[in-house]
Q: What sequence folds into this?
């Protein structure tokens, strides 16, 4: 019994000691964990905290607006872009400054005041932005090589008609600065309504009935011209030609053609060009086609080669001295020609498909009726503007021809409308033949 009690006492002592150690261990572990957690939390707070970066105390930009969104400039030239700046709030703080940057400094550079220097041909952007980079605006810069500026730009037609799904060809007269090193300034063609009529390089096409304007402008200097185009269901095209002028009745004829928005081709005698300089110049200015009828109306077929050359070259030079351009066509007198004439023509040769014989029948009513009854799509009709009966008869027929759906065009445009090309020295009788 005594032995049993001793063993029990020892066992209780062991349990008490173990309990004490366990209690002390848990306390120590708890304190340790508390310290570890505290340190860990402290470290976590430090890592997640955003650094306190000092910012300049500016009056910040609200918007930037440039006076140009795009700029076309010649290589070597300078230009200035102005920026309108708005700020967010009123304060005594200094305003946020702006910075000017070129996206491609090899094409164009820019200084701190928005002054641009064009360095080489190409396209880039100039950017104006606040120093903080939050607010910005840009301008597209097109640098072009030096060019010959267009001095004058004129369409020879201010109003015309075209049939639906048919083509017409606008004639543009331009003059340029003269520098052989440079290319000429290009032009841009636009239609005010592409659903009615389209245009490409002066070639217009009727799409649906209606009216629109075709405009052309010089690409850089912004000189402009326009032509009113009326699209109708269908038109017939005819070319009237007048030989042996200019003369005293030519002005009356030109006024009628202008009034009725019509064109004609004049085969001019070189020896009359200077005497009727005013009339010849007016023909050219109104967009009529100027052809040569030789110098003095001789039968080229029976002349020597030397005299054939004289008849043709003298007339060409006389016409150019007045209009500034050589004649575009040649009509040999009486329609007579041979291989010598062909080789020296320097232009397509034009015969006719309808001869009114107006030189024989000097009667206004006869001319009027003959013209109306023999006009046809694609025909080239022969008349003379030196006879008053021919001029007056044609003028009386003109409004009726238009009512019948005829559009009077030059010989060269008639061939283009019909999809035909002409070559120098070849005789042509009309696009239908």
A:
């Amino acid at each position: 019994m005594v032995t049993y009690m001793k063993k029990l006492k020892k066992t209780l002592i062991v349990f008490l000691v173990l309990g004490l150690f366990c209690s002390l261990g848990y306390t120590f572990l708890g304190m340790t964990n508390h310290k570890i957690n505290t340190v860990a939390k402290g470290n976590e707070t430090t890592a997640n905290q955003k650094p306190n970066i000092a910012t300049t105390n500016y009056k910040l930009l609200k918007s930037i607006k440039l006076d140009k969104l795009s700029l076309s400039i010649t290589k070597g030239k300078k230009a200035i872009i102005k920026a309108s700046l708005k700020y967010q709030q009123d304060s005594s703080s200094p305003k946020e400054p702006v910075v000017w940057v070129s996206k491609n400094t090899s094409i164009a550079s820019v200084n701190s005041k928005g002054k641009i220097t064009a360095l080489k041909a190409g396209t880039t952007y100039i950017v104006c932005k606040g120093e903080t980079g939050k607010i910005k605006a840009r301008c597209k810069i097109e640098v072009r090589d030096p060019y010959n500026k267009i001095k004058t730009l004129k369409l020879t037609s201010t109003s015309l008609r075209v049939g639906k799904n048919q083509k017409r060809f606008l004639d543009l007269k331009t003059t340029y600065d003269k520098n052989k090193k440079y290319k000429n300034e290009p032009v841009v063609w636009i239609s005010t309504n592409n659903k009615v009529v389209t245009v490409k390089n002066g070639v217009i096409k009727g799409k649906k009935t209606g009216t629109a304007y075709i405009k052309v402008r010089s690409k850089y200097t912004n000189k402009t011209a326009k032509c009113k185009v009326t699209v109708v269901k269908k038109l017939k095209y005819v070319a009237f030609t007048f030989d042996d002028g200019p003369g005293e009745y030519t002005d009356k004829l030109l006024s009628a053609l202008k009034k009725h928005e019509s064109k004609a081709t004049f085969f001019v005698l070189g020896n009359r060009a200077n005497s009727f300089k005013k009339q010849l110049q007016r023909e050219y200015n109104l967009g009529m086609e100027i052809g040569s009828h030789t110098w003095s109306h001789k039968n080229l077929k029976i002349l020597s080669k030397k005299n054939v050359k004289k008849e043709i070259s003298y007339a060409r030079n006389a016409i150019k001295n007045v209009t500034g351009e050589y004649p575009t066509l040649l009509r040999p007198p009486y329609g007579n020609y041979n291989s010598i004439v062909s080789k020296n023509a320097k232009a397509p040769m034009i015969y006719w498909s309808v001869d009114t014989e107006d030189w024989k029948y000097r009667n206004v009513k006869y001319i009027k009726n003959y013209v109306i009854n023999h006009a046809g799509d694609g025909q080239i009709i022969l008349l003379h503007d030196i006879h008053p009966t021919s001029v007056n008869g044609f003028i009386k027929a003109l409004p009726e021809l238009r009512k019948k759906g005829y559009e009077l065009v030059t010989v060269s445009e008639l061939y283009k409308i019909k999809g035909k090309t002409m070559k120098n020295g070849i005789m042509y009788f009309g696009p239908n033949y």
